[in-house]
Amino acid sequence: MQIVMDAEALNVFLAREFPQVAGSYRVERVDPQSVTARLTVDEANLRPGGTVSGPSMFALADLVVYCAILSRIGPVALAVTTNASIDFMRKPEAGRDLIAECRLLKLGRVLAVAEAMIFSEGGAEPVARCSMTYSIPPKR
Amino acid sequence: MQIVMDAEALNVFLAREFPQVAGSYRVERVDPQSVTARLTVDEANLRPGGTVSGPSMFALADLVVYCAILSRIGPVALAVTTNASIDFMRKPEAGRDLIAECRLLKLGRVLAVAEAMIFSEGGAEPVARCSMTYSIPPKR
Amino acid sequence: MQIVMDAEALNVFLAREFPQVAGSYRVERVDPQSVTARLTVDEANLRPGGTVSGPSMFALADLVVYCAILSRIGPVALAVTTNASIDFMRKPEAGRDLIAECRLLKLGRVLAVAEAMIFSEGGAEPVARCSMTYSIPPKR
Amino acid sequence: MQIVMDAEALNVFLAREFPQVAGSYRVERVDPQSVTARLTVDEANLRPGGTVSGPSMFALADLVVYCAILSRIGPVALAVTTNASIDFMRKPEAGRDLIAECRLLKLGRVLAVAEAMIFSEGGAEPVARCSMTYSIPPKR
Fold first, then answer.
1. Which of A73, B121, B122, B130 has CA atoms 20 to 30 A from the CA of A108?
2. Within the 1-60 window of chain C, which residues sit less than 8 Å (CB to CB) from chain A?
3. Residue of B80, B81, B82 for testing the chain D interface, max D β-carbons within 10 Å
4. Second CATH level (architecture) for the domain B7-135
5. What is the gyration radius of the CA atoms in chain C, in angstroms?
6. How far apart, in whole angstroms, are the C-alpha atoms of residue C42 and residue A10?
7. Could you tell me whether strands C46-47 and B111-120 are parallel, antiparallel, or unpaired per DSSP bridges?
8. Is D90 part of the contact surface with chain A (CB cutoff 8 Å)?
9. CB neighbours (10 Å) of residue D30?
10. CA-to-CA distance for D137 and D75, rounded, in angstroms?
11. Cβ–Cβ contacts within 10 Å for residue B79, how many?
12. pLDDT, tens only, D63-114
């Protein structure tokens, strides 16, 4: 399937529609098999012991899946998450950004399903995995 | 099972251990069947259309489950979420706080399982439901 | 919302449409808040140690959610599960049937969400919990 | 990590410990990156319209994850599923076996996490995906 928004177009879209998050989350790469995004980790994302908070990882997974869908269907702001399942498997490394890689598994007329794997930058093993379903609003 | 931390004790603990979130999230009630927490919704939690963001709802669910566990085992800061599954079912009502009610389903030696139902304050139908597993560190 | 199929109507429907399972699984009660179903446990459902297999519990959860939806919308055989999340929390008691109680959380035009709690008959604490999303085919 | 049970050893183990399922489910391949299993589809697995039932797919995912764990830790019959999340994405093709490919994401001392992708044999796109957590009993 064709890519209709690249990384730059997605970042411009995020900055305009989601100014609260666009400072910390950024799409790094869009290719036919996967979309990659980065969370620049700062104080607000940390928890005791220097680990990244679960909600920050959830937000990263949510964003990369959303962008993977938009990369194929264009800037449909109203696609919404209906289900997410996330496994937190390892403690992220202190002082590293998080990188999420998303693979779109299904892009239907009504529902899209994707999974995202989250890594500490440079790490070989995932710190978390997430699968998500998005509901896609009908075209007008 | 006995309650060892009440709402006030939990809020004091959150303010000390999680100062980043303690301003927005607050435990409202602890009773033998359930624990209730509130997210005071402000600009940072909102998305286009006035809805509350998914990650903010996830954070509320995570907090209420964490507090439900601590209410029974005491201030074990290092209990960590290992799995979460969340269904977003309805759009939260604009301008309302979110209320989460948590029920502990299992409190084992190693794992705890709970579910949380999230409502717009005053609303009859849940906007989201979440089930979570926490890993409880061994006692020293 | 109105109940359009009661327990008897659902069991007749299951016997006709799903003869492979109708011998073991049975709807026990349909009321406005919940639907209850039973798995009559026999050899085929057991695993080493006398426990009921995970897939048999999954099948029971799937059936009770399906019947909860049909109890409100009528005999739509083609409603399909799109997502399920299940927590296995305790070992079922040997020699007891399993009872599942289902609560419908959302019945939308396209998606329905429900949760089921599974107990060993007579047991106070759930052996498993499950949340499921069903996709409802458009009306012709 | 080392492989301690290969496909043949796993099939022998299944035949001895799980005679009810060993006729239909079979490990096909064990390699360092993944474990593959097959469900030979017959009447008992089918639903109206010729599709494979959800519980049969769940059982296949459960089996391939279980075998992926045993392939690394040896014949520990008492490892048990604690959580599963499954997305059913496409209707399996009629008259085809199902093939599940499992990747172990974490093998900890207490918990293992894996994901399985299920395909109709010869199909390019997954019909279902599943993530599972297993609890591993302490060594005696």
1. B130
2. none
3. B82
4. Roll (3.10)
5. 14
6. 55
7. unpaired
8. yes
9. 23
10. 12
11. 17
12. 999 999 999 999 986 889 999 999 999 999 888 999 999 999 999 999 999 9
Torsions phi, psi for C61 (to 5 deg): -60, -45
Tally of CB atoms within 10 A around B118: 28
Q: pTM, whole model, 2 decimals?
A: 0.95
pLDDT tens-digit readout, D115-133: 999 999 999 999 999 999 9
Number of helices (H) and strands (E) in chain B: give both, helices first.
3, 8
Interatomic CA distance for residues C29 and B55, integer angstroms: 38
CA atoms within 13 A on the CB side of A124: 0
Question: Where is pLDDT greater, at B31 or C94?
Answer: B31
Average pLDDT over residues A46-72: 90
Whether residue D68 contacts residue D35, with contact meaning beta carbons closer than 8 Å, is answered with: yes
Report the percentage of chain A scoring pLDDT > 70. Answer: 96
Q: Which of B44, B55, B85 sits opposite A62 (nearest CB)?
A: B55
- Tokens coding A64: 């990369």
Residue C37 in contact with residue C63, Cβ under 8 Å? yes
Give the integer Cα–Cα distance in Å for C30 and D129. Answer: 32
Beta-sheet pairing, C80-88 with C35-39: unpaired
| Average pLDDT in chain B | 92
| Residues 65 through 84 of chain C touching chain A, CB cutoff 8 Å | 82-83
Instruction: Using only the alpha carbons of chain A, give its radius of gyration.
Output: 14
Residues of D in contact with C15 (CB under 8 A): none
How many CA atoms lie within 13 Å of D76's alpha carbon, on the beta-carbon side? 21
Q: What is the ipTM of this complex?
A: 0.93
What are the backbone dihedrals phi and psi of residue C96, each rounded to the nearest 5 degrees, phi first? -115, 145
Element (H, E) at D118: strand D111-120
Round to whole Å and give the CA distance between B83 and A128: 10
> Which residues of chain B does A48 touch, with a Cβ-Cβ cutoff of 8 Å?
17-18, 77-78
Taking one residue from A and the other from C, the number of pairs with CB-CB distance under 8 angstroms is: 16
Candidate from A87, A115, A126 with C-beta closest to D129: A115
For B81, the enclosing helix (H) or strand (E) is strand B80-88
